[in-house]
Amino acid sequence: MKQVKFLLLPLFALVISFGVKAQDINAVVEQFNKGNDAFKAENYQKAIADLEAAYTAAIAITDEDAAETVEGIKTNCKNMIPFSYSAVAGLFASEGKYDESVEYFNKSLTAAEKYGNTEITRENVTDKINAVYSVQANNYAKDGEFAKAVESIAKTGDNDAIDKINKYIAVAYLKEAQTAQKAKDYKTAVEKSKQATEYNSESESAYLILGVCYSQLKQYKNAVDALEKCIALKESAQAYYYLAAAYQQSGNNAKACQNYKKVNDPKLSANAQAQMKVVCK
Question: Could you give the number of structural domains in the chain?
Fold first, then answer.
C-alpha cells in the first residue's frame, strides 16, 4: 500500500511554554498521539476516530503560543485521516466485504476534499472502487450468481469489463448446454444455449448447439434461424450440414441443396453427398 509522508512535529517539546493554556493544548496533543499510535499500528478505524477528534479540538485552540503545534496537528490529521479511510477500504476489499470497501473509499474522498488532501483524488478513488466492483463481479460469476455479477460490473461503467463478464457467463451456460446435449436433454440444451447467446450474441458455438437441438425437437424454423446466425458469425462445414438438414426437414429442398454443397468436411461430406441426390433435382 502506498505510504504517505507526514510532517510529524516535536509536539510535546512546545507545550511547556504555553502558560495557562497548556492544559488545553496538552489534551489535544494527547488525543493526536493516540491517533498517531493507532495509525502506526495500522489500527485505522481507531486512528480515524482519534485523529478526527484531535483535529476538531485543535481548530478550537486560539492561543497564539500554541499556533505552531496546532498547525502541525492539523496538517498531519489532514493527511492521515483520508489515508486511514482508504486503508480501511483496502482491508475490507481483501476480506471480501465489497460494499463496505466502496463505502470507505467514498469516505476517503469526502475526507480528502474536506481537508484539502491532494493525494487522494476523485479519479484514483473511482479507479479503486471500479476495481472492487470487478473483483466482486468475478467472484459472483465464479459462484454462478450471474445476475449479481452483472449488477456489480455494471456499476463500473467499463464496457470492456462488462463485456468480459458477459462472455464468462456465456461460456458457463454454453458448457451446461453441451452437457445437456450429450445427455440428449435437448430442451435443457436449448434453454442453456439461448441463455449463452443472451450474454454473448457473437457465440457461434451457442447458436450451433441451439440449431442442432431445435432440429432434434423438430422445431425446424427455429433451427434454421439459429444456424443462419451461426454461419453469419463463422462459417463451418458442420453448421452448413445441419442448416441443410433443417431446410430439408422443413421442405425447402432448394435451400437444403445449396447448403449441402458447402459441406467440405470429410466426416460429413459422404452424408451430404447422399442427401444431395435427394434434394438437388
Answer: 2
* Pair 211, 242: CB distance under 8 Å: yes
Q: What DSSP line would sit under 237-273, residue for residue?
A: HHHHHHHHHHHHHTT-HHHHHHHHTT---HHHHHHHH
Residues 94 and 147 in one domain: no
User: pLDDT by residue (tens digit) across 21-52?
Assistant: 555 889 999 999 999 999 999 999 999 999 99
Give yes or no: residues 177 and 106 share one domain.
no
Whether residues 16 and 116 share a domain: the answer is yes
Sign for the CA dihedral angle at 38, 42, 48, 54 comes to positive
The span from the CA of 183 to the CA of 178, in Å, is 9
Start-to-end C-alpha separation, the chain: 75
In this structure, is residue 5 part of a structural domain?
Answer: no
pTM of the model: 0.80
pLDDT, the chain, mean: 91
pLDDT surpassing 70 at residue 142:
yes
The three cell numbers locating residue 264: 467440405
Name the packing angle between helices 44-58 and 22-40 (round to 10°). Answer: 160
**186-239: pLDDT as tens digits:** 999 999 999 999 999 999 999 999 999 999 999 999 999 999 999 999 999 999
- The verdict on residue 240 lying in a domain is no
Last residue of a domain, one of 170, 201, 232: 201
Q: Which three cell numbers stand for residue 188?
A: 435443457
